[in-house]
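Weekly structure sync, notes
Attendees: PL (lead), two postdocs, one rotation student
Agenda item 3: pending single-chain targets
PL asked that the sequence for the first pending target be pasted directly into the notes so everyone works from the same version. It is reproduced below exactly as submitted, 131 residues in total.
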Amino acid sequence: MIVALVMGSLPLAFTLFVVIGILRASKRNAIETERKRALLRSGTRGRARIKQIRQLASRPHGRALELELSLEILATQENAAPIAPFAHSVVAVVPSVAVGSVQPNAVVPIRCSATRPPEVLIDLPALGFVE
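Predicted structure, written out during the meeting:
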């Protein structure tokens, strides 16, 4: 009798485990998306030269590619002190229509976090592309 109760509850427990995992991942994605939107709205503007590109995902994300971009941060604006160029890498999901604008040696607009300077996003809306 006890074995039957335990065996009957395993599929339910597994289902709950999977559902909770999906909900947590969904919440993390929503938080990450909102954090990126806030950085695009209020981050310090700057420019970066793309030094190298590497495709991360073996297949595209819908109509976009997940790329690792090695950047040379050239300058930031908006009352920020001048900086010496420095290297930084970012992972970005780039719409396939924007890939032509995101190539080695291209200078692209970026947004940097004022509170966490290593946090950098390619400013695709400034290039004319919507994520």
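Discussion points:
- The longest helix spans residues 2-42.
- Confidence is low (pLDDT under 50) at residues 1-7.
Action: rotation student to compare against the earlier draft before next sync.
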